[in-house]
Write a structure and sequence with these properties.
The chain crosses the membrane at residues 370-387. Residues 26-289 form the Alpha-carbonic anhydrase domain. Residues 340-355 have a biased composition (Acidic residues). The protein is of the alpha+beta class and 388 residues long. It has 2 domains: 1-35 and 366-388, no CATH class; 55-361, Alpha carbonic anhydrase (Carbonic Anhydrase II), CATH 3.10.200. The protein has helices spanning 2-20, 24-27, 36-42, 48-51, 159-162, 184-190, 210-213, 249-256, 308-311, 317-323, 348-358, 365-368, 370-387, and strands at residues 59-60, 66-67, 74-76, 82-88, 93-97, 106-109, 116-125, 136-137, 144-152, 169-178, 202-208, 220-225, 236-241, 245-247, 286-287, 326-328, 340-342. Helix 1 packs parallel to helix 13. The relative contact order is 0.18.
């Protein structure tokens, strides 16, 4: 026991020393002692990550959606294109608009009371098909999720100021599903993946149309939440579009080749960069999807098709679960159809078990053993206090 405690102490001292000589932005990860469970405990400025009541991501249950007839269509500038930099941050793949850009894409309408200026894209994905997206629908995680962020340009000057303020940020969630083809705009991003393999690597992307990246739907779900990365600021109006965009298996393989570390020390794959689901805490999730249908005599239609689950993502969630039972083998230098093997079909009850297990927060190595986790956390507070 003492030897294990000694090892934990050494690891902790190395982490604290690393933090002292770098920045918090470089320190955090999606697992281990720098993972989501510790974001708000070790850095006081991120305390909302552990104490917040309007945190993201969440699981969206179709039966609990509230239809709001006053929700407007979401509007994004159609004929404007942007340029920026796609970078491997070591935690995610992030696209940011060039700071000196004179071309700004505005986001308005929908649930938004103000105009927002598009600023950045975060790409989340899993190393297997049954995980990847941060938000989930009826307990189902998509293979990936692309999040578009913009700041409130009417009240604030930039993203840094807006992220701390009410109504400061809009987050648009695009669920990513595996398909046969992908849009030209998504291809502009995926074609550069080989240039951002390692942490710190980046590449320029020119003439990206944000409007063309979106799926062809006006339906969405919306709620008040937070950023899904530190410091978990509760300033985000989330809009989850009710239709996925598609990525091919080959492009997804290329994405899964990206690494968390440098070329000299690659560390682990960049994937599985999703924060665990957060409690809803009685928040309302509104939608412009009209579940109530009537016939020509203005009488309600009592039909299974009009259940909420059949209107969210076109009732394809069950089908998606079946598709995700295809297990991906490790990616080799040459991609072929032989890289895929079919697993045996699982029962519906197993699906339920799998979906419920994905809802549980990720367990870091320090928390797997409650004794050592508690001791490590206590020592961590002491060392951080001394450093301050």
């Amino acid at each position: 026991m003492l030897s294990k405690l000694g090892i934990n102490l050494i690891v902790l001292l190395l982490i604290i020393d690393d933090i002292a000589h770098s920045s918090w932005e470089e320190w955090w990860t999606y697992d281990g002692i720098s993972g989501p469970g510790f974001w708000g405990l070790i850095n006081p400025q991120w305390n909302m990550c552990n104490k917040g009541r309007r945190q993201s991501p969440i699981n969206v249950e179709p039966d609990k959606l509230l239809f709001d007839p006053y929700l407007r269509p979401l509007h994004i500038d159609k004929h404007k294109v942007i340029s920026g930099t796609l970078q491997n941050s070591g935690q995610s793949l992030v696209f940011r608009v060039d700071k000196d850009s004179k071309q700004h894409v505005n986001i308005s309408g929908g649930p938004l009371a103000y105009r927002y200026q598009f600023e950045e894209i975060y790409i989340h994905y899993g190393t297997e098909n049954n995980q990847g997206s941060e938000h989930q629908i009826h307990g189902y995680a998509f293979p990936g999720e692309i999040q578009l962020y913009g700041f409130n340009k009417e009240l604030y000057h930039n993203m840094s100021e807006a992220q701390h303020k009410a109504q400061g940020i809009v987050g648009i969630s695009l669920m990513v599903q595996i398909g046969e083809t992908l849009t030209n705009e998504l291809r502009m991003l995926t074609s550069t993946f080989n240039k951002v393999t390692y942490k710190g690597s980046s590449t320029q992307i020119r003439h990206l149309s944000l409007k063309s990246l979106l799926p062809n739907t006006e339906q969405y779900m919306t709620y008040e939440g937070s950023t899904t990365h530190p410091g978990c600021w509760e300033s985000v109006v989330w809009v989850i579009l009710n239709k996925p965009i598609y990525i091919t298996k080959q492009e997804l393989y290329a994405l899964r080749r990206l690494m968390q570390g440098s070329e000299q020390t690659p560390k682990a794959p960049l994937g599985n960069n999703a924060r665990p689901l957060q409690p809803l805490h009685h928040r309302t999730i509104r939608t412009n999807i009209d579940f109530a249908k009537v016939n020509e005599n203005n009488q309600p239609i009592d039909n299974e098709y009009y259940r909420p689950i059949e209107k969210v993502f076109d009732g394809q969630i069950s089908k998606y679960k079946q598709l995700n039972k295809i297990k991906e083998l490790p990616v080799n230098d040459t991609i072929s159809s032989e890289s895929i093997e079919n697993e045996e079909n699982l029962s519906d009850s197993q699906d339920d078990d799998d979906s419920s297990s994905t809802n549980e927060p990720e367990k870091s190595f320090a928390m797997k053993n409650s004794i050592f986790g508690a001791l490590t956390l206590m020592l961590c507070f002491i060392f951080v206090t001394l450093l301050q």
